[in-house]
UniProtKB/TrEMBL annotation:
Name of the protein in question: YkgJ family cysteine cluster protein
Organism in which the protein naturally occurs: Leptospirillum ferrooxidans (strain C2-3)
Domain of life assignment: Bacteria
């Protein structure tokens, strides 16, 4: 399978958003001036594992259930890498700054979140959906202000509205008590790879922007998830989390 974004249906602009540090040096220092050694051997192994998932998906006929199983494998993989790099990052439980930005989500990621909603108690589900409807109403207002009006089922539409959305400083519908995620096990890929190297103060509204940690593992995972969505759910688009949930 090709790794070129234009051939996988992924969006090359995604990895150009904001200041980032592509890790290629054996050692670097974070904002606390602590040395950090990226686990390069593990990262190479993970690229191979992602390619194996990608190749398996390309050989199979359309199979949404396989797609969701594959996504969970990808989640486990990036979480494993996350556990290896966390000590060098600025992020901690309860920070929640990244829970107030626009998260582009694929159809297979949305399918897992919708499955999660289906097993929740009705009162909790309705509480979440009330927030989802409120967020979507605001998203529509912001999209209508662009020229032409932004299509929030496209990556271009997300780019056109994301800056205004972040100024709203509205939390994700699933941000719960203690600023912790209420669907942590089923949160989207971007929530799992949003690691920051700079001072946490840079993540506050109006500050920063923070410098994000990027690796080829996270990039490859993003492209594979998009490819799986196109092949097995016949929908390669990306949309904000609330957009998917209210439409299903």
């Amino acid at each position: 399978m090709s790794e070129h974004p234009e051939e996988t249906g992924a969006d090359p602009k995604f990895w150009e958003e904001g200041p980032t540090l592509q890790i290629g040096h054996p050692v670097f220092m974070n904002y606390r001036r602590e040395e950090f050694h990226p686990p390069f051997a593990l990262m190479e192994e993970m690229i191979a594992r992602l390619e194996s998932i990608e190749n398996e998906g390309s050989r199979l006929p359309e199979n949404p259930e396989w797609a969701k199983k594959a996504l969970r494998s990808i989640y486990a993989l990036v979480d494993e890498l996350g556990s290896q790099i966390a000590s060098g990052m600025s992020c901690n439980a309860g920070c929640s700054a990244c829970c107030r930005v626009m998260v582009s989500t694929s159809s297979v990621e949305a399918a897992l979140m919708i499955d999660r909603l289906s097993v929740e108690p009705e009162d909790r589900k309705e509480s979440w959906m009330e927030i989802v409807r409120d967020r979507n109403a605001r998203l529509k207002e912001l999209a209508a202000k662009t020229s032409p009006p932004a299509d929030l089922s496209t990556f271009e539409g997300l780019l056109a509205t994301c800056e205004d959305w972040e100024k709203e400083n509205l939390p994700c519908p699933f941000l719960g008590e203690g600023n912790l995620c209420s669907i942590y096990e089923d949160r989207p890929l971007l929530c799992r790879v949003c690691w920051v190297l700079t001072d946490p103060e840079d993540c506050n509204p109006g500050a920063g922007p923070p410098v994000k940690f990027r690796t080829k593992v996270f990039e490859k995972a993003y492209f594979v998830v998009r490819d799986i969505s196109r092949r097995h759910l016949k929908n390669g688009s990306v949309s904000p989390i609330p957009w998917w949930l209210e439409s299903h």
